[in-house]
Amino acid sequence: MSYDEGKFMQFGFIGINYEKADLNIRDKVAFTDQKKIDFLKQADQAGIEQCMVLSTCNRSEVYYFYEEDAQIEVIGHLYQEMFPDIDLTEYMMTKTGESAVHYLMRIAAGLESMVLGEDQILGQVKDALDFSRTMGSCGKQLNKVVRDAVTCAKKIKTQLKISEKPLSVSYIGIQKVKETCGIQGKNVLVIGSGKTAVLALRYLKEYQAGKVWICSRTLSHAAKVQEEFPEIQVCEYKERYRVMKFCDIVISATSSPHLVIRQEEVQSENSLVFLDLAAPRDIDVRLADIPKVILFNLDTLKNISMENQKERERLVEESKDMIYQACRETMEWLSVSRMDETIESLQQRCSEIVEDSYGYLSRKIDLSKREQKILKKVLNASLQRLLKEPIQELKHLDTKEEQDQYKEIVQKLFQI
Questions:
Q1: pLDDT at 337
Q2: Taking a C-beta distance cutoff of 8 angstroms, is the pair 65, 49 a contact?
Q3: 347, 387 in Cβ contact below 8 A?
Q4: What whole-number distance in Å separates Cα of residue 284 and Cα of residue 266?
Q5: 3-state DSSP call for residue 344?
Q6: Distance from the first to the final alpha carbon of the chain
Q7: 240-269 residues labelled b (16+ CB within 10 A) or e (exposed)
Q8: Which helix (H) or strand (E) covers residue 14, if one does?
Q9: What is the pLDDT of residue 4?
Q10: Is the dihedral of CA 235, 188, 283, 216 positive or negative?
Q11: Spatial distance between the Cα atoms of 72 and 10, rounded to a whole number of angstroms
C-alpha cells in the first residue's frame, strides 16, 4: 500500500470506554482479531488507509487519519456495523486533530485508565500499533503519532513513577509485611480460600516465602487452591493455632462474620506479623498489645491507599506539561510532513540541476578525480544554500490554505 504524503490528513479517534459504557456494553463491543482485520480492511476500502484498533477490557477505540470530513462519518458507520445488535450512539466518543493526539498520549500514559497511572495500557498500545503495521494499515503519520505517545508515556513513567504508588490494599499489605519482617524464606499461614487469599498466595510466591500453609472452614476449597499452588500445605481449620506456632507471618482473608483469630488462643512465643485483609475483621485487634506482635488491618491499609491515590493525582497534574509539550511537537511534525512531497521535489530538482551542470563542466574541463568530487560538492552546496530559506519557510506553514498556495507557487516557479 502506498501513501500520498502530499494529501492533507488529520488525526481522529472514535470509540467507547468505561467512562460512558458499562461492562455489559463493553463485553458486546469488543474487537476480536478477526473483527480487527475486517474493520481495517473495510476502512482501507473506504479510503482510510491509516488506522489502528485499541481493544481492551475497558475500551474499544479506533485511531485513524482522514483526508475529508466526510470520512469521519464513514468510520463511525463502519464501527457501528461491526456491532449491529446494539445502538452505540449514546456511548460513542469522537475527537479530531490536536484533541485526538492529546487523548492518545493520555491513554498511553495510563491517565485515562480506570486505575490511574497503570502500566498495562502502554503495552496494549504498542501491540495495537504492531497489529496495524502487520495488516498494512500503518503509514508514516500514524506510526509517528503512536510512537510519540509511547515515548511520552515512557518519559512520564520513568520520571514521575506514578504506578509505583500502589492502590491495591492486598498489595500494600504484603508490602508492609515485607518491609517489617521480610518474606523470603519465612513461614506463612494463610487463612481463607477466596480471591483475596489467592492473590496473597501469588505475592508470597513472587517474594519466595518459605513454608506456606493454607486453611479454610471448607477443606475442599483449600484443596482447590492447592491445585494452583501445589507447593503449599493444607491444614484443617481447627489446626490453625497449632500451625501458627511454626509461622512468622499470618494472613487472614475470610468472609466470616466473626473473629477467626482471638488473642487468648495465640500462644506462639515467636515474633509474629498479622495481616488482616478481611471486612469485617478476622483478627482480634487486642493482638497488637502483645509484645513481639505486629498487626496490620484494612483501616491502616486503606489510609495508605487513599494517600497513594492523592499522590497519583498530584503526579498526573505534574505530567500535564509533559504531555502538552509532546503533543505540540507531534502536531508541528504533522504540519511539516504535509509539505514533505514538495520539499523532496525541490531537493530532487536541485539534484537534477547539479548532475546536468556537473556533466557539462566535466566534459569541457579536464579535471582529476579529486577535482571532480570537489566540483560536485561545491555545485550541490551552492544550490542547497539557495534552497535553505525557502525550505525553512515551507516547514513553518501552519494552515492547509497556506500550504496549498505555496505548493502551487513552488510547482510553477521550479516547474515540478
A1: 65
A2: yes
A3: yes
A4: 10
A5: helix
A6: 24
A7: beebbeebbbbbbbbeeeebbbeeeebebe
A8: strand 10-17
A9: 38
A10: negative
A11: 10
Residue 171, CA atoms < 13 Å, CB-side half-sphere: 9
Going from the C-alpha of 387 to that of each of 15, 142, 343, 398, 410, the distances in angstroms are 44, 29, 10, 20, 11
At residue 201, φ and ψ (nearest 5 deg) are: -65, -35
Do 56 and 121 contact (CB within 8 A), yes or no?
yes
pLDDT, tens digit (0-9, with 9 covering 90-100), for 94-117? 999 999 999 999 999 999 998 888
Set of cell numbers at residue 71? 470520512
Using CA atoms, how far apart are residues 164 and 308, in angstroms rounded to an integer? 9
* The C-alpha cell that represents 10 in the structure block: 488529520
Alpha carbons 208 and 56: distance in angstroms, whole number: 31
Residues 6+ apart with CB under 8 A from 363: none
Amino acid at 181: C
Return the C-alpha cell found at 362: 566535466
Strand, coil or helix: 283: strand
Between the alpha carbon of residue 317 and those of residues 106, 150, 155, 168, 304, the distances in Å are 12, 19, 15, 22, 20
Please list, in sequence order, all residues whose beta carbon lies within 8 angstroms of the beta carbon of residue 333, skipping any fewer than 6 positions away.
144, 148
Q: List residues with catalytic annotation.
A: 57
How many other CB atoms are there within 10 angstroms of residue 185's CB atom?
A: 11
Phi, psi dihedrals of residue 301, rounded to the nearest 5°? -70, -40
Burial profile 112-132: b = 16 or more Cβ within 10 angstroms, e = fewer: bbeebbbeebbebbbebbebb
- Condensed to tens digits (0 to 9), the pLDDT of residues 67-85 reads 889 999 999 999 999 999 9
What does the pLDDT look like over 191-215, one tens digit per residue? Answer: 999 999 999 999 999 999 999 999 9
Report the Cα 336 to chain-centroid distance in Å.
27
Distance CA 268, CA 47 (A): 74
Contacts of 319 (CB under 8 A, 6+ apart): 109, 111, 156, 160, 162
Cell 485483609, residue located? 277
Count of other CB atoms within 10 angstroms of residue 40: 27
